[in-house]
Amino acid sequence: MKPIRFDKDGLVPAIVQDANSKTVLTLAYMNEESLQKTMETKETWFYSRSRQQLWHKGETSGNTQHVVDVRYDCDQDAVLVLVEPKGPACHTGAYSCFSQSLTGSTSKVEGDRFQILNDLEETIAK
Amino acid sequence: MKPIRFDKDGLVPAIVQDANSKTVLTLAYMNEESLQKTMETKETWFYSRSRQQLWHKGETSGNTQHVVDVRYDCDQDAVLVLVEPKGPACHTGAYSCFSQSLTGSTSKVEGDRFQILNDLEETIAK
Question: CB contact, 8 Å: A16 with chain B?
Answer without folding.
Answer: no
